[in-house]
Design a protein that fits this description.
The protein is of the alpha/beta class and about 250 residues long. The protein has helices spanning about 35-45, 105-115, 125-135, 145-150, 165-175, 200, 210-215, 230-245; strands at about 5-10, 25-30, 35, 50-55, 60, 65, 70-75, 95-100, 115-120, 140, 155, 195, 215-220, 225. α2 (about 105-115) packs across α5 and α5 (about 165-175) crosses α8. Bound molecules: zinc ion. Zinc ion binds next to loops.
Length: about 250
């Protein structure tokens, strides 16, 4: 087989993955054998869960399409599709179950605070993460793009920012979560849902001042942690409102 040139053009914010020398979003690859378009895209540093549409010479193709001749490849992220290609998208927009890698503890906390189902184990190894992701049908959130490129990953996202609040907004936008926000319904420690409990039922677990000042209590259905609208609550609420305002 004669060598042939493939020109790739990465759109939207996908140039985040290309490195500083290719901020224009254009990369050329010379190939000597038939290669799947997914492998060529990932060889440029862009994980497949970030890719929502691929056009080869103007025609929409799937990840397993084989490149074997000179080609122009256009690669689009979620929320940056050209008109008339909605039916060819490769990603699902809405998703509400996540697994987060061990480096994103603050993002996990924020998402749970907003009521989202987030599996998280700070000590988990990559293989465990992928196993839980697959068996519980969760989308993977990680800044480790190699992990996101693993072939078993179907839904996932790499937060661009290093700041947890900005990451939270990115995730809400990417997975269209805005309408599903349900603050203070989930345990920040173990991810289980909270239930309302009568003060009398939790009285013996409360500190003296908490007993005096608070009337409404929630209890985690998983680990039993008691929650109430303490002094930290109004601070959390303010942060939440700021996040919500930036999402809309
Ligand atoms: Zn809990």
């Amino acid at each position: 087989m004669n060598a042939f040139t493939v020109r790739l053009n990465f759109h939207g914010d996908l140039n985040f993955f290309l490195g500083s020398r290719t901020r224009s979003g254009r990369i050329e690859r010379i190939l000597a054998e038939k290669v799947s378009v997914k492998d060529v895209i990932e060889s440029c540093g862009v994980p497949h869960p970030e890719v929502d549409l691929i056009l080869v010479n103007g025609r929409a193709v799937g990840f397993d399409y084989g490149l074997e001749h000179i080609a122009e490849v256009e690669v689009f992220p979620v929320h940056a599709l050209p008109p008339h290609f909605e039916e060819n998208r490769l990603q699902i927009l809405r998703w509400q179950r996540f697994i987060v890698d061990g480096h994103l503890g603050k993002l996990t906390r924020n998402l749970r605070l907003l009521g989202f189902d987030v599996a998280y184990d700070r000590e988990a190894q990559d293989q465990q993460l992928l196993q839980i992701m697959a068996s519980e049908n969760r989308a993977l959130l990680t800044r480790d793009r190699r992990l996101l490129m693993h072939s078993v990953v179907r839904h996932g996202y790499c937060p661009r920012s290093q700041n947890a609040d900005a990451q939270t907004i990115e995730v809400i936008r990417r997975f269209e979560l805005f309408g599903a926000i349900a603050p203070f319904t989930r345990c920040l420690r173990c991810n289980a849902l909270l239930e309302k409990v009568a003060k009398g039922d939790v009285m013996q677990k409360l500190e003296p001042l908490t007993k005096v000042y608070y009337e409404k209590f929630g209890r985690c259905t998983g680990c039993g942690q008691i929650y109430w609208a303490g002094s930290h609550f109004s601070k959390l609420q303010k942060r939440l409102e700021a996040i919500r305002a930036r999402c809309s």
